[in-house]
Structures are given as C-alpha cells and as structure tokens.
Amino acid sequence: MSTTLSARYRTAFVTGASTGLGLAFAEMLLAEGVQVWGTARDLKRLPARAGFHPVALELSDGAAAETAFLAAEGAAGGFDLVINNAGFGAFGAFAETDFAVWQRQIEIMLVNTARLGHIALRGMLRRNRGALVNVSSLAAEFPLPYQSAYNLVKAGLSALSESLILETRGTGIIVIDFRPGDYRTDF
Ligand SMILES: NC(=O)c1ccc[n+]([C@@H]2O[C@H](COP(=O)([O-])OP(=O)(O)OC[C@H]3O[C@@H](n4cnc5c(N)ncnc54)[C@H](OP(=O)(O)O)[C@@H]3O)[C@@H](O)[C@H]2O)c1
Could you tell me which residues come within 8 angstroms of residue 29 by beta carbon, excluding any fewer than 6 positions away? Predict the structure, then answer.
C-alpha cells in the first residue's frame, strides 16, 4: 500500500534549497503536499511556490543559523523532517592550503551542520516524532583527491548520524545517514 509523504510529514526544513539536491528534495516534498521551509544565503535564489517558506541561512555563522532555524521551527509549529543538505566543496592540496581556510570548511560544514542537527533533534525529542537526514557523501568511504577537508567533513557527518541512529533507537525518531554518489548539480 502506498502512502503520501504528507501522511507522515506535515512540515520539513531543508537547508540549501536554492539549487541541486536541496531544491530537488524541496520540490519532491511540495509535490507530496508537505509544507517546506527551505534555506539559501540569498533569499532571491529560492523558489516562489505555494507551500514553500523561504529562510535566509548562512552556515558560516553557527549562532545565526541556529536562530534562523528556531524562528522557522516556531512558525512551522515543529518540523517533522529536517534535511541537513547545504554544503560546498573546496579543492586544494592539504599542505598547500592555508590551514585557517581548511579549518573553516570543517567549522562551516561539519560543526555548524551538527549544530543544526543538535537543535533539530531536541525539538523532535520533545515532540517524540520526526526524522533527521544528514546529507553526507560516498566521499565518507571513498575520499576524493585534493578534497581532504570535504572528505573529513563527510566522514564526520556520517559518524555523527550513525551515533544518533544508536541514541534514538526506541524513540519515535528516525535518523538517516544519506551518502549520495555523483549528481550533476552546481556543486
Ligand atoms: N552533487 C553531488 O554529486 C553530491 C554527491 C554527494 C554529496 N553531495 C552533497 O549534497 C549536498 C548538496 O549538494 P549539491 O550537489 O546539491 O550542491 P549545490 O547545487 O552547489 O547546492 C548547494 C546548496 O548549499 C547551499 N550552501 C552552500 N554554501 C552554503 C553556506 N555557507 N551556507 C548556507 N548554505 C550554503 C547553497 O545555497 P546558496 O544559494 O546560498 O549558494 C545551495 O543551495 C552537499 O552537502 C553535498 O556535499 C552532493
């Protein structure tokens, strides 16, 4: 028996919904009748659609990103589904890259993504329901050359998701470690 996603998920929060996989997730959810709060750094890059609520979110500022999430969560009355999708890739040999630039990629993509997962999971545990999807990559297992920070971020994100899968066992919450292969996007 097939059921629509909206039978299980009323509201969703999708980071990086302006292009690529995030936009595809948002469109799929909207087509299934789910209300979507989708983010980009620049609101003008987000689609204008019925059921789509644009949110400005810059992952490089973890505190501001958390504030934006909480405001959206309040407006939505809680999120049934949170997709931590936003990300980017920076190329460069490890030894030749300025260490501060390398470290910054980890802070933005791993630490601040985890921060959104942390605050999202708290809301789900309060409500005893919800699904958290962390978009990792096959790079978690098969590192890409000249992308050491990206590989580390995705391996760390997958390890976090696996930890949360164990921690949420027996609750009403689902955690998904999503490791896509290659898709043609703006990445
Ligand atoms: N494409 C692939 O083959 C592939 C494979 C494995 C995993 N992935 C993962 O899938 C996710 C989406 O990638 P994609 O291929 O769809 O890339 P994309 O088309 O470049 O989209 C990236 C999204 O992330 C947002 N974003 C980038 N930097 C941000 C920042 N500092 N703060 C907030 N938002 C930011 C962008 O929003 P703006 O409008 O603000 O730029 C955009 O919406 C990423 O986590 C990526 O690592 C992709």
Answer: 5, 9, 12, 14, 36, 81
Q: Measured from the CB, is residue 19 less than 6 Å from ligand 1?
A: yes
How does pLDDT run across 169-179, given as a tens digit for each residue?
A: 999 999 999 99
* Gap from CA of 22 to ligand 1 centroid (Å): 7
The Cα 16–Cα 23 span in angstroms is 7
Query: Which residues lie below 8 Å from residue 167, measured CB to CB, with a gap of 6+?
Result: none
d(CA 102, CA 149): 6
Q: What is the pLDDT of residues 32-82, one digit of tens each?
A: 999 999 999 999 999 999 999 999 999 999 999 999 999 999 999 999 999
68 in contact with ligand 1, CB cutoff 6 A: no
Assess whether the C-beta atom of 38 lies below 6 angstroms from ligand 1.
no
